[in-house]
Structure formats: structure tokens, C-alpha cells
Amino acid sequence: MATPVVLAEGLGHPQGPDVLADGSVVFAETYRGRVARYREGDGVTTLAETGGGPNAVLAAPDGSLYVTQNGGQAGPWRSPDQRPPAVLRLAPGSYASETVATEADGVPLLAPHDLALGPDGTLYFTDSGTWAPETRPDPGRLIAVALDGGVRTVLNTGHTFPSGIAVAEDGSLLWAECYTHRILRLPPGGEPEVLCTLPEEQLPESLKTGPDGTLWVAGLFAEGIVVLDRHGRQTDFVHTGGLPLNSVLADSTLYVTDLGPYDDSAPDDTAQMVGRLLAVAL
Length: 282
Fold this sequence. Notes:
By secondary structure, this protein is mainly beta. Helix content is 0%, strand content 52%. It starts with a strand and ends with a strand.
């Protein structure tokens, strides 16, 4: 494994990266209420001001970007520009914003977290609720947005804080639960099954799938990316340092959004602009 290269730093809680056709990396910057892009030579620029707390970005084949809007929260931090929890779509080119979903089956969204596209074009996302591991106040959901715009709850996960989500080649849903440390799978037409339970330091904040079914899991307190095979067995570990939140694999490069070197003595609700965007050549 190569040494991680810092592409950008001084970021405000960067999350949910994806890679565009031109090789630039887009990501959500929660504390700044924006969707940003890193492009070599240009550095970090703003694509869209969302307000609230954008949590993840997903690039669609038509050039649009889907964004989870958690309303304006990250642990105890609250944005001064609160917005309704929603999933947004940013139009190709202009990145003008439109709302895709604010509820599912008549139940308002709590705090959408991560996104994934299914092979048939269905958009899936996790609705995690508020991060509060001591009290676990909110029930989580896996939610689907059909091509016709219909929004439905796929699964109620209970008070588990479902975070990262991905779709396997066979259409199975894969997701991570922060409170339980579990990685789960929901086969088409089947029942949920636990792939594995990670140790405490490998708290699974997010996961992505590789072309061979490999799972790349951001182990928040493990300072790296946990690599699992399709059966949930750990096969490798990519050390990144810091507090990795999310990753995305593009060809042989792994891009990682990292919470950064947090000052533990600072108040919990302080928006510390110490996040980083990393690149690791695999």
C-alpha cells in the first residue's frame, strides 16, 4: 500500500465522496453547508450551497448529483442554517437544486445519511436520525426512490444508526450500522442477514463495493479502511491515519474523506475545520 497523499485539508466535516467523469472528486462538506469539488490544479471549489448539513454526494450517469441533506447536524453540532431533512438532486452543469424526497410512506425523514444506485436506476439511501450513541433516540430506515419518483421504506432497522449503504451486483442491499458495528445484507426478496460484526475500534461509518464484490469499510476509530470479501471476512486493511468517514474507489485509487486531527479538548459542538481529502494508490 502507498502512503496516503493529502489532496486538500482545512475542510469542515467532509463526507460522502464520489468521482466524476473528468476525474475530479465531489464531496459534501457538512459544516460549510455545501457540495464541493476537488480538481487537480484548481483545489477545492464550491459546486452548490445547500445550507443545513449535506452528508453525502452520489454522481448519477446523467451527470446529476444526488445529495443527502440531514437538516444541519453532526453529533452535537447544529448548523445556523437549518434545512428540512431531504434528498436533493443537483442538475447537470448548473447544479441547481431540486428536492427528491422529504418523507417515505408518509413519515418525514429524520436525517438522511448515505446513497447508492441500484442496477435498475432505483436510488437507495439510509435515514439514520441523530447521532447519539448513549441514548439512541431515533429509529433508522433504508429507503428507495423509484424511477417514477415514488418513495418507500424498504426496511426499518430499529435504533441502530444505519449509515453507509451500497448495492451489490445481484441487487442485494448492503449497509453498515454504527451502533451495532454490523455489516448486513438484504437479498432481493429475502430477509436481512448479518455478514459480520466488526470490533469496537472499526466502527463502520460507511461502505463501498468494489467490482469483485470486495467491501471497503471506513473504520472510524481504526485510522483506516477495513477490506472485506463478499462474505464479510476481513482480507486487508488500508491505514490512512486520522478519522476516516467515507471512501470511494476509482480505478486503482482510493479517495478518503477524513474528519481530521480533532482537538478533543474543544467543545463538542465546535465546527473544527480540520478535515482532509486523501488519495491512496492501491
